[in-house]
Amino acid sequence: MIFLGILFPTLVLAERLNLTYWNCGSQTNPISITASETYSRLACAKPYYDFNLCCAIHDDCYNQKNGQQFCDTKFCDCLEDASRGNGLKCFVFEEAACYAVRNHGGKAYDLSNVGNSGGVIYKIKNNSKIAKEFAKLYENCVVQRLTFNTCAINFDNCMENTRNQKSCIHQLHTCLSETDLMRKIDGKCDKVVQNVREVLKKIENSV
C-alpha cells in the first residue's frame, strides 16, 4: 500500500509497534512503511492499531487475488470505520490513504503473492492457551496469516492497556469472525477458525 506523505502534529501518540508487525506501506519501499507508521501515530493515535489491522486485511485480500476494486473498497470502509469520531486530522489521513490505494495500488496488486500471506509470526504473550490455539491458525490458514497476526497483536495491546480479559477476548473473537468475509472457501482453514472461536468463547464465558 502507498500512503501520501502528510504529517499531522499532535500531542497524543499511540504506543509504537515494532515495524516488523506494521502492515501499512509498500514492501518494496521501506521508506513508505516507516512513513505510514509515523503518520498514522501522529494523525490517528486512537485507531492506530485498527489501521494496522485494516492494512493486514487489505494485504491478505490482495494476496488471495480477490480483485483490486473489491479489496480497495473493503480497505477504505475499514479505515472509515476506524477513523470515525477521531477528528479532522485523522479523517484527512484516512481519505489520503484510501485515495492512494485506489489510484496507485495496481502495481502492488499485480505483484502480490498468490495464496500465501507473509510476515513474521506473532505469538500471543498474555494467554498461553490462546497462543496455542493461534499456532493452529498460522499453520492451517496461510492465506490470512497477516490478519490473524494482527488480531493477536491487538489482543495483547488490549490486555496490556485495559487488563479486561473478557472484553479483550471478545474483541479477538470478533476479529476472527470477520476474517470469514475476506477468505475464499477453504474447508481446512474454516474448520480451524471455527474451533478456535469456540475455544475463545469458552474462555470468555469462564472469566
From TrEMBL:
Return one Gene Ontology term, BP aspect: arachidonate secretion
What keywords are assigned to this protein?
A: Secreted
GO MF: phospholipase A2 activity
The protein's superkingdom reads: Eukaryota
Q: Which GO terms describe its cellular component?
A: extracellular region
Q: InterPro entries recorded for this chain?
A: PLA2-like, PLA2_histidine, PLipase_A2_dom_sf
UniProt protein name:
Phospholipase A(2)
Q: Which compartment or compartments is the protein found in?
A: Secreted
Provenance organism: Caenorhabditis angaria
